[in-house]
Amino acid sequence: MPDPLFPTLVAGAAKEALRFGDHVLTYDELAAVAGGLARELPPGRVAVWATPTVHTSVAVVAALLAGVPAVPLNPKIGERELAHILADSEPALVLAEPGADLPAGLAALPHRDISLSGGKALVADEPDPESPALIVYTSGTTGPPKGVVLPRRALATTLDALEDAWGWTADDVLVHALPLFHVHGLILGILGPLRRGGSVRHLGRFSTEGVARELAAGATMLFGVPTMYHRIAGEVGSDAALADALKRARLLVSGSAALPVCDHQLITAATGQQVVERYGMTETLMNTSVRADGEHKPGTVGVPLRGVELRLVGDAGEVVEDVETVGEIQVRGPNLFTEYLNRPDATAAAFDGGWFRTGDMATRDTDGYVKIVGRKATDLIKSGGYKIGAGEIENALLEHPGVAEAAVTGEPDDDLGERIVAWIVPSGEPPAADELADHVAKLLAPHKRPRVVRYLDALPRNDMGKVMKRALGA
């Protein structure tokens, strides 16, 4: 029989498992309430209204205990996207916290409130490792969202590889404030501590005060996205309590998008801590990470995790062997998804033999550290015969004192093929376009300077803090 996904939950323990504000559940209590719910779940699939609450965590754990695939729903989802996901995944039931304000699109679906009391631990055989655990929908940037079918095998493999890379143990207490409808917040941030037998404290809403409070009160790890670490970087130099709390942390992890090098430097200067970056996708879960016991190289996402094979592939399909040469990341390993739900065409197109085409462009250095330069579709700019990654230009722009936020895209140019466009949120009086172009040319190379500069009040971002560059183009 396969090993259980959550050994401590099966064995039982009086230690704290989940804390969301005043809601605290020990492993024994979580086993009881999730086990009771698991007994009542219908066959098929269940949708989970994934608010950042302990109720969402209980619902997902219950589905995993029952062997019923869970479909997390973003509470900010729009009508059209919700209708597509429900028609595509056909859940038999929606689970939600009591009193949740559910949209009209869910009215036709049977609904059940998630209770935090009563119940009895479920004693059942562990489902097959290849059976679906979660169906997580992509952001749908190139069409309707696709349902990524993640098997139990992928969850266990990726979390155990992170145990190896980060020295993650049952003694670790994780603090985060990430959404629970996505891989980062749900799988890494909730299921990760539960698989290790550790604890997680969710802030509900991110604040530097909350981070400082929990790290000062015994939390050992912090997971965040770059927008959160940017807030920390902006405050840590003048906030002694925040700096002292961060110094106590065993591990600070950033993911879901690249963390600017300048933010790395500000945090390290104030705390002595070096933020670890990792790289993953919904379809692959985690692929690479800077190891806790390895060399930290800001601006890179580390080396392949245990069990993950990674290669870079050029435009003609050739494997890129040269150091610092750009290629598309392709990966294979037990961390990969099974399929796109109801989309055999898209599943087949996503693979090159047994290798998954990530669409992310990167280089590797002599030590094998991966540096992502951007998405193939939006972040690789071909200008004047050069392949230029938007990420390095964004990092250079952020080193200018007049730049608070920056995004870089390409647009058609009759002479260059594409010209580099910088989208800038100024930190005060907007710096002149020529000044920014000269700044980039000095730090990088003249052909990487922006030819056009556009100023914005804010960059369009999704719920994970990623800049939506297609919205900039529109």
TrEMBL record:
<feature type="domain" description="AMP-binding enzyme C-terminal">
    <location>
        <begin position="392"/>
        <end position="466"/>
    </location>
</feature>
<dbReference type="InterPro" id="IPR000873">
    <property type="entry name" value="AMP-dep_synth/lig_dom"/>
</dbReference>
<dbReference type="GO" id="GO:0031956">
    <property type="term" value="F:medium-chain fatty acid-CoA ligase activity"/>
</dbReference>
<feature type="domain" description="AMP-dependent synthetase/ligase">
    <location>
        <begin position="15"/>
        <end position="341"/>
    </location>
</feature>
<dbReference type="InterPro" id="IPR025110">
    <property type="entry name" value="AMP-bd_C"/>
</dbReference>
<dbReference type="InterPro" id="IPR020845">
    <property type="entry name" value="AMP-binding_CS"/>
</dbReference>
<dbReference type="GO" id="GO:0006631">
    <property type="term" value="P:fatty acid metabolic process"/>
</dbReference>
<protein>
    <submittedName>
        <fullName>Acyl-CoA synthetase</fullName>
    </submittedName>
</protein>
<dbReference type="InterPro" id="IPR042099">
    <property type="entry name" value="ANL_N_sf"/>
</dbReference>
<dbReference type="Pfam" id="PF13193">
    <property type="entry name" value="AMP-binding_C"/>
</dbReference>
<dbReference type="InterPro" id="IPR045851">
    <property type="entry name" value="AMP-bd_C_sf"/>
</dbReference>
<dbReference type="Pfam" id="PF00501">
    <property type="entry name" value="AMP-binding"/>
</dbReference>
<comment type="similarity">
    <text>Belongs to the ATP-dependent AMP-binding enzyme family.</text>
</comment>
